[in-house]
Amino acid sequence: MAKQDFYEVLGVSRGATAAEIKKGYRKMAVKYHPDKNPGDTEAEEKFKLAAEAYEVLSDDNKKARYDQYGHQAFEGGHGGGASGGFGGMDMDDIFSQFGDIFGGGGFGGGGQRGGGRRAMVKGSNMRIRVKLTLEEIANGVDKKVKVRRKKQAKGVTYTTCSTCNGAGQVMQVTNTILGRMQTAATCNVCGGSGQTIKSKPSGADAQGLVVEEETVTINIPAGVTDGVQLKVSGKGNEAPGNNSISGDLLVVIEEVPHETLKREGINLHSDLYISFADAILGVSKEVETVSGKVKIKIDAGTQSGKILRLKGKGLPSLEGYGTGDLMVHINIWTPQELNKDQRKFFEANLNNDNFIPNPSKSDKSFFDKVKDMFS
């Protein structure tokens, strides 16, 4: 059976904003929450599906791949890997990742639920910067980076926290003008993990963690922009305790400036300098693109400022809306020094009609050319 469209699962349109997607997930999660539907396996499956849909659509990178390829983007056919969905995750994993969607109250988010589930603690996120060339951005790339992340030390053991009895929270009673109010607070002994260290090897910190270097492969899709942030789930710091999950590795893209190409969205621009003779007689020239050099034809009588548009020689859209173009700006190079014969030639033709500027003979103005490029 075909998998239901993620937008339909959350009851939003394909053009929905991040806020609308979040609102749609909140509505579905509340409707099918296990605490409201005890023993209802169908409701639980819908709850998981809503979480999977939100996990994809709330992530700009995954959402772009889903919009382009649909469910196939995360089945090995496109986009360089799985979505990190919920096929192998239990309900606690979902609550730990998206519990804060409810604003810290009611459902999920690292406390105990109605069934007495132990608190889930997530490790801290890490952030790194990765430099990419325009060529790598054009094609997408797998980058291997070395990161130093906190991991549970080998041999460390944990035991149930005696203060909160493994709940990760303690109840506090406060006297108010409305009477005695009971609230839940994070256990200050175990930090909310529900466990304390029983034994740890030398070299581990107070939480039983050590810093280790690890090589992480980052799948970077084609078309990313400078400053965009990607997420590699589970490759941040680990958290203490047996009931914990790792944080995420946040990857900030830094675009390396190209020597000859300038980026404008998905379009690229380059300057091509030609001589007077080239412009008068016409010539073929090689120009740089992100996929190598290509040869273009410069027509006889080409004016300085002319823009040649090479379709499809720009960058791919991250959202899957096609590929941009390369705009080649023609500039006629004026020599700064002339020999005697060259000077005589130009002096002899100084008043020749062919050498007198006549903009009215030009096919189009600069603004008309720019307008044509984007029409």
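The above is record 1. Record 2 follows with the same two-line structure.
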Amino acid sequence: MKKIFIFALAILFAQSVAAQKLDRSQKPVAGPAPALTFVDPVIYKLKNGITILVVENHKLPKVSATYSIDAGPITEGSKAGVLSLMGQMLNEGTTSKTKVQFDKAVDQMGAEVNASASGAGVNALTRYFEPAFLLMADAVRNPAFLQVSFDKLKSQTITSLRSNERNAKAVSGRVVNALLYGTDHPMGEFATEKTINDLSLNDVKDAYTKYITPSRGYLTFVGDIKPEVAKALAEKAFSDWKGTSLTFPVLSNVSNPAKTEIDVIDLPNAVQSEITVSNLINLPLNNPDYHAVLLANQILGGGADAKLFRNLREKHGFTYGAYSSTSSGRFQTAFSATASVRNEKVDSAVVEFLKEINVMRTEKVSAEDLQNAKNLYNGSFALGLENPARMAGFASNILINNLPKDFYRTYLQKINAVTREDILRVSKKYFSYDQSRVIIVGKQEQFLPGLKKLNYPVNLFDKFALPLKTSIN
């Protein structure tokens, strides 16, 4: 009898599944935008200028803290690379502990402590957080700055620079910003073997004195800690710290080229070329266009469902992936579309890049593409709120960028209010077609003849962004 009953249940279940008639050719319909809940951090201010933000979360017995210095872009000039070296030196021991002793103390607690030219961070179990936090503060405030450590890091930096000279991605990463901004701009300058060789330990110490300071500092605590405990810890570690007062830099805007040009850097060993199509933009977070630009970029090149990927990879097979990005902030940033492309297909890929950018500027996107982009932001934004550190990041962004207090509470409302007309408008404004730089790093003998046929000015540069000829047309 029992077997008959089980058999009957199995038949009923099979009939129920068959009756559902699933249509797997259609994507599931996205649900409504999720309702968001925020926990505002507790904020304190130390007399020396440090702003403290505390996000309390007791789900796990651990705490993290981050100290960041809002110095803005720094022009290093002939000492390019000194800030990076200085940041590395902060992890080489303190005046009271050798590097071995310091690292051993961190390891014994199972903690993580690191420092850089822009600040420091610590992550530890609650029971060990205070001593780990004080170690972080010691690294920031009392670096040893030993000559032997400086010589070691300097040598490692030079070795790394040399090894990257035949790497197309590394060369592209250097020259793209140099050509966009100019090598005399803090966003365009870069370290070379010469600038690193010319640095001394005193240069590192001078950079530390000038830029590692409580001025414009933000100290963020996230996790299993009470706000009053975090404040007491911050005062214990930093209240008597004095340092240079930072002046936030003012930078002039850099112009895009008068008309689109192709800039080529020859790398004869490259089997693939790095293509970047880019133009400078101004997009602070409080810009009314901000949310529309995010969606426009997602539709153009935000992932595997975007126009660039579908064209350059799926349709033409030029690359493993083609993407675009837009940066935002208080200074001039860039829109860029990028891909690693077979040398012999570079000219064809450039045509397709510019074609897709132009389509964004001249035709409305489909309602489906826009809704898919919105669905992605609705889901990913809500999912990101599961990380309590996001709340601290939101709060510091509001303070640093002078944003409305409800900027993130209304984030999805503004995303979902964007129209197809908005996408067309911001694409015309921020995705340049007529005033772009097409920067290519690769084996030029395989693609230069094809580029000449595209009727754009073609300029040659060396691996350090220095012009070789004004034009080869």
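The first helix runs from residue 2 to 19.
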